[in-house]
Amino acid sequence: MRSFWLIPILCAAACAAPRMAARTDLAPPPTEVAPVIPVETSTAVPVTYKKEPARSRPSTGERIARRAGELVGRDSVSDIAPGYQDDCSGFVRLVYASEGIDLSRLPARSSIVQAMYIRARENGALRDGSPRPGDLVFFRNTYDRNRDGRRNDGLTHVGIVESVDDEGTVTFVHRGGSGIVRAHLNLDSPRTFRDGDETLNDVLRRKSRLSRAYLAGELFAGYASPDGLGRAAVAQARRPPRRAR
C-alpha cells in the first residue's frame, strides 16, 4: 500500500519541474546599458561686427554750395523768394540766409557787392589760396557801369563756389544774364577759355563796341569764407541800433 500513495507524490514532483523551468525561461533579460560616447566641447568663437564709420555732418560751406546748386536753372531770384533783389547779390543773400547768415545789414557803399567784400575784409573772412565749397567769389569790372568802355567800375559781381577739381578749376553758381547758372574759373590759366573739351574760364564781360570780352580769370577779385561772414553777421545783429543824434 505504501507504493500506491508514493505514485501521486512522484507525479506531482514531475509536473512541478517543467513549470519551474518555464518560469525561468520567461524571465526578462538583464537590462543592457548603452555605452557612453564622449562628446568634445568646442570653445564658442565670438562674433564681431564692423562698425560703419560715423558720417560727419556737412560743413556750413558744403550746405551752402549744395543749396546753390539746387537753384541752378531757375530764371529769377525773386520768383524763388519774394523780397530778394533779382541780381547776383540777391542770389547770394538768399542762399546764405538758408544757413542763418544774414547779409542784409551791410555797411553803406556804392554797391551791395562792394559792401559784402568790405565786410569780409574787416572780419578776416577773405581767403588766401584755394577756395572751398560755399565761399563767395568776387569779380570786378564785369560790366561797364559808368559806360566809358574802361575797366574802372570796381567790384561788380559775386557768386558762390560749388566745387574745385583736381586741376584747380572752380565751378561757381551765380545769377547771370540768363538766370541762375554755373560758370568756371581757373586762375592758373586766366586768359584761357577752353582746354580741349574742358571750359576753364567762362565769359563774364561781354564784348561791346568799346571793349573786348573778358573771362572770369581776368576779372577775379577774391574769395571769402562763409564762417567769417557768419560770425560777422551775428556780431552785427547783436549790436544795438545807433541812436539818431
Number of domains: 1
Distance between the termini: 167 Å
What assembly state would you assign to the polypeptide chains in this entry? single chain
User: Which CATH first-tier class would you pick?
Assistant: Alpha Beta
List SSEs in N-to-C order.
HHHHHEEEEEEEEEHEH
Residue-averaged pLDDT? 82
Q: Can you give the helix content as a percent range?
A: 25-40%
CATH architectural designation: Alpha-Beta Complex
Describe the 3D structure:
By secondary structure, this protein is α+β, with helices and mostly antiparallel strands. The protein has a single domain, classed as endopeptidase domain like (from Nostoc punctiforme) (endopeptidase fold (from Nostoc punctiforme), Alpha-Beta Complex). The protein is built from 7 helices and 10 strands. The strands form 3 sheets. It has a 6-stranded antiparallel beta sheet with strand order 1-10-2-3-4-5. A hairpin with an 8-residue loop joins strand 8 and strand 9. The radius of gyration is 47 Å and the shape is elongated.
Provide tags for this entry.
245 residues, six-stranded antiparallel β-sheet, endopeptidase fold (from Nostoc punctiforme), 7 helices, elongated, two-stranded antiparallel sheet, alpha+beta
Describe the structure in brief:
The protein is α+β, with helices and mostly antiparallel strands and 245 residues long.
Describe the protein's topology.
Blueprint: H1 2-25, H2 60-70, H3 77-80, H4 88-97, H5 112-122, E1 126-127, E2 136-140, E3 155-164, E4 170-176, E5 179-185, E6 194-195, E7 198-199, E8 203-205, E9 214-215, H6 216-219, E10 220-224, H7 226-238
Antiparallel strand pairs: 1-10, 2-3, 2-10, 3-4, 4-5, 6-7, 8-9
